[in-house]
Each structure stands twice: as structure tokens, then as C-alpha cells.
């Protein structure tokens, strides 16, 4: 069944997807998985995965990990927690997966980021600091000289 954009069914589906995103934004540090998120909005895991990617251009897992890495960046800039402490604080259960994903999104390992960026946003309004430090996927960033 194809849902027509703008239809009442389509709008209800988008509202459910927004609830999933909002839950991820609020509960990123909790153990979340696609099936649990799907149950919360009365969808199957497969349907949620497909619809989320269609609506937002990335998988549920990718969105969750990006939120976790954004929070980890803020904690690492403070400089008072170790990389391992930050990893577990943001909800990751594997230091290796955390470090790999952090490096993919930020372009440098969390230990290097912590050392180089400690207190980098001190004195900046939080809204500006968030925009300046928002991670991008390195593989999606344009090559030098490209626009």
C-alpha cells in the first residue's frame, strides 16, 4: 500500500515518526532499539525502519548514534570525564563502537577531540556552540573545492 503525501494517513504516519524522533532525543542515553521504538508507536520494526529512512533520510540507528555523539562532544569539551565515562554516559555499551562511530562523524577519535577541544566553546551561547560543533558524517562532507 502506498500512502499518498498530504493524506490524513500520511500525516498520522509522520506524527508517529516524529514521536519516535522526540523519544530518541529525550532518551538517547537509554538502551533503545528499533523494535522497542516501533512498539511505542504501534508499528513493526521493519515498517518503522523503512518509513523513518524515507521521512528523514537516515536510519533510526544512525539518528540515535548522531544524538549520542552530539552529547558526547559536549561532555568531552568539558574535559572532566574520560572517554570511557562519556561513552557509557551517552548510552553506548561498547567503547569500540562508540570510538568508531565518533571518528566517522567527527573526523577524529574521541580522545583527540577531548584533548584539542576542551573548553573550546566556553563563553559561547549554547545555541551557537551547538551549531558550530554539530557533527557531520565525514563521508558525506564535500571534498575540498567542491560545493
Question: Could you walk me through the main structural features you see in this protein, from its secondary elements to its overall organization?
Answer:
There is one protein chain. It contains eight helices and no strands. The protein is an all-alpha fold and 147 residues long. Mean pLDDT is 85; it is low at 138-143.
Termini distance? 38 Å
Structural class: mainly alpha
In N-to-C order, the SSE pattern is HHHHHHHH
Strand content: under 5%
Indicate the percent of residues in helices.
55-70%
Q: Mean pLDDT, rounded to whole units?
A: 85
Which consecutive residue ranges, at least 5 long each, have pLDDT under 50? 138-143
Provide tags for this entry.
mainly alpha; 8 helices
Chart the SSEs and their pairings.
Elements: H1 8-27, H2 34-40, H3 45-56, H4 60-78, H5 83-89, H6 95-106, H7 110-117, H8 126-133
Helix pairs in contact: 2-3, 4-7
Can you give me a brief rundown of this structure?
This protein has 147 residues and is mostly helical. The chain has helices at 8-27, 34-40, 45-56, 60-78, 83-89, 95-106, 110-117, 126-133.
Amino acid at each position: 500500500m502506498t500512502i499518498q503525501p498530504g493524506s490524513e494517513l500520511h500525516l498520522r504516519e509522520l506524527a508517529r515518526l516524529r514521536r519516535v524522533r522526540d523519544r530518541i532525543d529525550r532518551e538517547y542515553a537509554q538502551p533503545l532499539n528499533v523494535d522497542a521504538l516501533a512498539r511505542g508507536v504501534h508499528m513493526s520494526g521493519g515498517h518503522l525502519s523503512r518509513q523513518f529512512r524515507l521521512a528523514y533520510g537516515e536510519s533510526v540507528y544512525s539518528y540515535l548514534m548522531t544524538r549520542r555523539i552530539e552529547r558526547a562532544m559536549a561532555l568531552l569539551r568539558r574535559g572532566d570525564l574520560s572517554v570511557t565515562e562519556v561513552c557509557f554516559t551517552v548510552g553506548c555499551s561498547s567503547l569500540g563502537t562508540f570510538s568508531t562511530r565518533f571518528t566517522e562523524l567527527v573526523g577524529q577519535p574521541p580522545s583527540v577531540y577531548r584533548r584539542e577541544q576542551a573548553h573550546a566553546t566556553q563563553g559561547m551561547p549554547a545555541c551557537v556552540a551547538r551549531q558550530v560543533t554539530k557533527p557531520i558524517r565525514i563521508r558525506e562532507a564535500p571534498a575540498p573545492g567542491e560545493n
